[in-house]
Amino acid sequence: MTTANQNNVNTRKTLDSLLGARKETLSLYTELASLRPFKEEQAVNVVLQEFCETLMDYTASAHFQLYRFLEDGSERRANVRDLAEKIYPDISMTTEQFLDFNDKYEEEQEGVHFSSLGNDLSSLGEILADRIVYEDQVISAFGAPKNESAVA
Questions:
Q1: Rounded Cα–Cα distance for residues 4 and 15 (Å)
Q2: DSSP 8-state secondary structure symbol assigned to residue 107
Q3: CB atoms closer than 10 angstroms to residue 92
Q4: 94 exposed, middle or buried (CB, 10 Å; 0-12, 13-18, 19+)?
Q5: Domains of the chain
Q6: For the range 79-82, what are the long-range contacts, defined as Cβ-Cβ under 8 Å and sequence gap of 24 or more?
Q7: For residue 78, what pLDDT is reported?
Q8: 3-class DSSP string for 25-54
Q9: Whole-prediction pTM value?
Q10: How many helices (H) and strands (E) in the chain?
Q11: Strand ranges (DSSP E) for 35-148?
């Protein structure tokens, strides 16, 4: 296999991993949202914790797989590098918001007020939608087809 072919295979695996993490995150987001109105009960806590873990996996997948791949110089296409540099600040902003949500809800804590979870989850949904738009731009620049299950 040529180096170019190996790079294409590696890129595809990276994108598939990212899209898989995205799909799982969106699925759990939907499951969590369906538990409204939120009450401090075990079922909500279990799904919330699973969602937080998956959200962090998804965030890490983008940063440690996709952007590390771009930063380490493996990507030679200028259009991909330029686009990634352009939208990376926007993606970083969404990452910070994901981390804030996770910090607030990641562990079952006495005093976590479920009264704000509905609003926080709604805001997070908008941030997830923005993140998907940014990532899809990078995926398109790679020339990879977007997975139909990438957006739920």
A1: 16
A2: S
A3: 12
A4: buried
A5: 3-150 (1.20.120.1370)
A6: 79/141, 80/138, 80/141, 80/142
A7: 83
A8: HHHHHHHHHCCCCCCCCHHHHHHHHHHHHH
A9: 0.83
A10: 5, 0
A11: none
